[in-house]
Each structure stands twice: as C-alpha cells, then as structure tokens.
Amino acid sequence: MKFVTALRSVGCAALSLSLLSSLSTSAPAADEVNIYSYRQPDLIQPLLDKFSKDTGIKTNVLFLNKGLVARIKAEGENSPVDLIFTVDIGRLSGAKADGVTQPVASTTINENIPAQYRDPEGHWFGLTTRGRVVYASKDRVKQDSITYEELADPKWKGKVCTRSGQHAYNIALFGSMVAHLGEQNAEAWLRGVKENLARKPAGNDRAQAKAIFAGECDIGLGNTYYVGLMKTNEKKPEQKEWAAAIKVLFPNAKGRGTHVNISGMALAKHAPNKENALKLMEFLSSGKAQEIYAEQVFEYPIKPGTEPSEIVKSFGKIKADKLPLEEIAKYRKTASQLVDKVGYDNGPDS
Ligand SMILES: [Fe+2]
Predict the structure, then answer these.
(1) Which of 91, 255, 305, 345 is 20 to 30 A removed from 69 (C-alpha atoms)?
(2) What is the DSSP secondary-structure string of 55-91?
(3) What's the 135 CA to ligand 1 centre distance in angstroms?
(4) Quick one: which H or E segment has residue 312?
(5) How far is the CA of 56 from the centre of ligand 1 (A)?
(6) Residues of the chain with pLDDT under 50
(7) Could you give the CA distance from residue 53 to residue 284 in angstroms, rounded to a whole number?
(8) What does the alpha-carbon distance between residue 246 and residue 169 come to, in Å, rounded to a whole number?
C-alpha cells in the first residue's frame, strides 16, 4: 500500500488514531480515501465516521501541523493523498498556486457551496465560515455596533489589541480592506489602527480576549469560533472568564457585512482514489454534514438554510461580506507588504 509506505517516513507522532487503526486492518486500496489535514483529527472524525458508515469507504487521516504542501510536492506523482483539509483562504489558494490540487466539476458540490466560497476553477471549496469580528469589553465599551474603518478612529487610541499583522487571519482581513478601499486608503487605515494599538501585536486571537479581560485594552480582533472554544474550555477554565469579559461585535453589519474566512477542502492533483474522494467531497458539502462539522468547531455551515450551534447563534446574526474569497486571495501579497510598510508589528509610534 502506497499510503502506508509514505506514512512510515513521517514518524508515529504525526499519525492520527484513525490512521493507526486503518494501518492495522489494511483495507483494500479501492475502498479508501486518504486525507492530509491541518485540522485536528477529533474535529473531523465524527463526519468521516458517518461517511464510512454510509458508504463503506474507509478514511485515513494524516494530521500535519505544517509543511502540508511541501510534503505533497516532495511526494510528487506517487503522493498517496486524495483530499486536503485546511483552514484559511490563503492556504487553499496557496495549494492551488503551488500546483498540488486539481479541478472538480460537481453539480452537487456547486449547488451546495455558494460561488463566493469556492474557487471559480473548482480547485478548492469552503465547508464552513468564520467571521473576523471585534471582541469588545462588556464593561468598558458601551456601543453595540462597529466598523473595521472605525478601528482607525483616534477615539480608540491605546485601546486596541491584535495579534501579528502578518498572521493569515489578519492578512485576509487587510486584503479585504485593500479590495474595498483601494491600496492607498487601506494603507492609511492600517496606519491608523497601528497608532491605536495598546501594545505591540502579540499572542493568538484568544490572547486578545485575555488582554481585554485583564484591562490592557478595550477592543481586539478575533475569529468567532474562539469565543465558543473559550466558553466551553473545561481543560483551561480561565478561558471561560476571558470569554465572559467580551461581547462579539460584527463589524460593518449595517453596511457591506463582516469579513469571513473559510475552512475548506481541495482534491489533490495525483489523487489515487479520486472517485472515493469525490464521493467524500460531495458528502461533506451537504447541509447535514456541514452542520455536524460546524457544531464541532463553532463555525458557520456554508450551505444556505443551514444553522450554526446554539452558542454561535447567541452572538447574533452574522451578515457576511459578499466579496468573493478569490478576490481577497489576490490582495494577500499587497496586504502583507502594507503590514511591513507601516511597521504594524512594531506597535504604535507614539
Ligand atoms: Fe484558528
């Protein structure tokens, strides 16, 4: 089995439990589909189990922390991977640009996933969305609405916290600002946000909620699902306090809508089990599968008419920016250059 041989070289630490169990049973190749995933195995396993139960097709998941595309490139034509699971438009469009994906033309998938959340050429597809929202102090921020533009307003001087401007989540948001405002205005905006920072950008999205809880800043940028993850974190219950200190504001709710990003999938260029992979892709695109997935990860299922989890609903209704993600992907490089140009990650000048 090609997949087994290829996997032996990566060491056991990277192998998920589902994969290990499949290695021992050695199902025939024809009844398998091989997945490389940046998403934690426990998040996708319930869905994969349901797929296997319905179809009899076994799924093998290799979980990776980094180097997914480099690995597929190195494997070349002998790569055992059929399907790629990842998050962020940057990674999905990057996989296409790096030539490790192939196009899929499926009426079922195209009917389930709106055009703004898939590649026009069929190289990648969104499964769930996440909003990039403002975390605001319940105690110190009175307003219940905000715009991204307003983050540059001097009234927030010394009150804004974010993670690094170069992180993929911020790059996608800043790319959307370039698309909407034009490069010059987006640069001026980013300079304004930088001058409002309470400190040098640091930490992950949850760290911004923690900083608000600690009184270091009043507002921060973060993804919606982290609020759900913090509220339900039994292993680190202090995160429940961070989540309790903030409210979710959906930026530009009265205008063009809130910037959203996706988790998604792509068919690998040399997929050896292409037919099985297509079956899995169609299954995953269904509204029911998206809802199960979204419930696990506190994201929004993409198919119109589907519902997120109760916790996510409690944030209020999201109105998503209609800008196609393909457009945002085009401005990622410009956004990254602007972050360097304004010295965003150095924090405020004064
Ligand atoms: Fe994340």
Answers:
(1) 345
(2) H--EEEEEE-SS-HHHHHHHHGGG----EEEEESHHH
(3) 15
(4) helix 310-313
(5) 32
(6) 1-2, 4-28
(7) 14
(8) 20
